[in-house]
DNA sequence: CGGTATCCCGTGCGATACTG
DNA sequence: CAGTATCGCACGGGATACCG
């Protein structure tokens, strides 16, 4: 069994439907900036402004949406340091950090097959 | 360096922008059915109708779009057997097959962290 | 059987302006 | 500094009907 969704418990009657456990993750990292934000945070905790500069072209609204979704998914944490001016740090959680491993595998696949695959 | 996009050649000046080589792949598998179609085809060559039944809920138009994109990316091949009724087979290419490896890593991550991460 | 054509809708994304 | 508010558009996706 090598499919994305099937488990060892399943057989050829598998349905790759809405119930697939991959769906949630795929829909999360599917959007434009999420995986890139995780990649940026893999270098260490970052402030909102720093993330916005690294993810070139992202608007503050969209960056906020992206970070909120990651926070809701428990992949990053948001820490506010009450000060003037405001200081907010985003950081990968432990489980968020673990996600960088398969994500990095994906990146390596791209590097290795960028010529064969027209992605 | 553990970020999604940075390579060993890069340093802290990396920009996770539109130029990131991951972007193409992420935008490809980002949509609703692509990764699932790859997963289905990992079980072996499939006909259009069989894919449509496995990817429960997909409309013929969207399935066609999905398969065309995968074909354009050189990840699957489309073979027409001229007969009545028509017989069309979709099959993973070699590079398409190689993609199932990191995709499977992603699935395993989901299974292992489904409780910690609310994806 | 394996699609295309057509219509429609939700939402992800972007630009800009403004605020605690 | 770190967002929110508002507007608008493009596009992915869905339903249905039809075609070679």
UniProtKB/TrEMBL annotation, chains A, B:
Residue intervals of the HTH hxlR-type domain: 20-118
Q: Which GO terms describe its molecular function?
A: DNA binding
Q: Which InterPro entries match?
A: HTH_HxlR, WH-like_DNA-bd_sf, WH_DNA-bd_sf
Name the domain of life. Answer: Bacteria
UniProt keyword terms in alphabetical order: DNA-binding, Transcription, Transcription regulation
This chain's protein is named HxlR family transcriptional regulator
